[in-house]
Amino acid sequence: MADLTQLLENEVFMAFASYTTIILSKMMLMSPATAFYRLTRKVFANPEDCESFGKGENAKKYLRTDDSVERVRRAHLNDLENIVPFVGIGLLYSLSGPDLSTALLHFRLFVGARIYHTIAYLTPLPQPNRALAFFVGYGVTLSMAYRLLKTGFYL
Amino acid sequence: MADLTQLLENEVFMAFASYTTIILSKMMLMSPATAFYRLTRKVFANPEDCESFGKGENAKKYLRTDDSVERVRRAHLNDLENIVPFVGIGLLYSLSGPDLSTALLHFRLFVGARIYHTIAYLTPLPQPNRALAFFVGYGVTLSMAYRLLKTGFYL
Amino acid sequence: MADLTQLLENEVFMAFASYTTIILSKMMLMSPATAFYRLTRKVFANPEDCESFGKGENAKKYLRTDDSVERVRRAHLNDLENIVPFVGIGLLYSLSGPDLSTALLHFRLFVGARIYHTIAYLTPLPQPNRALAFFVGYGVTLSMAYRLLKTGFYL
Lengths: 155, 155, 155
Fold this sequence. Notes:
The structure is a homotrimer of 155-residue chains. Chain A has helices spanning 2-9, 11-28, 30-41, 56-60, 67-95, 100-122, 129-151.
């Protein structure tokens, strides 16, 4: 167990663990957000989900799409598309021995940008709020990927 | 190599590796499941996929959506949305030195809940079968995230 | 820090880090590809995204779907569905002490197959180009999962 304990005594890895936990938990909030819009607007994707509102033909009117629900789903998918590369590349970056201050800058910018992205998507704020939030997060991940491949690679 | 071997001698990490491999393999089964429904119902998303069924105008009638295909695709996306946080948070949780029995309880509940979720989605079973399966898996991941952030964090 | 340095001195892990960084960066390219098709074809999903093209009723005509945009989005989602299991299972596989040459064969085949999959999807090339690329990547991940569970598991 000595090695594992040492891993979490490494400050960069510890910071990565904290920010990753926060941003993955934020992403998970998109599921109840979708459920909230589905229930309040009575918009469902599956017949078995709206049985309590009416049976048979009567239930079919709830099987539709809604702008607010689709908006949350797009925000959720955009999170997946961007947080997956951050977690994968960020884990390897954290193990490659970067400066603590540089690593913290990357993690903080990414987490801040993705939280702002969600706010900008769901409010919605006028563009380019969402676009800028997207590009900051995107740039952080690319910067970590660049640093990783520069440190040395084995192909 | 000594450290790596030690990592896989750690029982919690070993259990995490096993359950993660199982649940990611289960998620991968959703791709052939989608292909099965697409082929048996002749429902395609791309013109090049249904060329063997007919060319030109004749092929266009296969470019449509189908309830069963959309159902499998929703189940697949729901897997992605929930298994990604489990793998990311679970990896860090496994390295934070939890009790073996507590960790096993988390991993087993999650994997069981997600397998049941897929069965409930594809059968489909009446609600709240799928909702309960979803919330068990969701709760397990949040519980690991809470434990991680309580163990100590670096922001 | 000694352990972390040792981790990146392990050749298999180093190779995994390089190939994962490459394939996750490739997946990230799907976002600007989607944006490119959205802007050149003037096809948007959100009203706030096309405000510069016209306000109010005039903007609504840009809120539509387009075959090219949907094609890139499907390719992106297929990447997510396949690269997530590769990264998760591949990380654990890399830590399980495989032969360097076997591991390299897995990583190279997967990365090559997924790059070819994207080319086949976006060109589009006639089937079975895309299907074969999909199955090569799928088989590589399953082969790593099999090797992992065979090495020993803890349930």
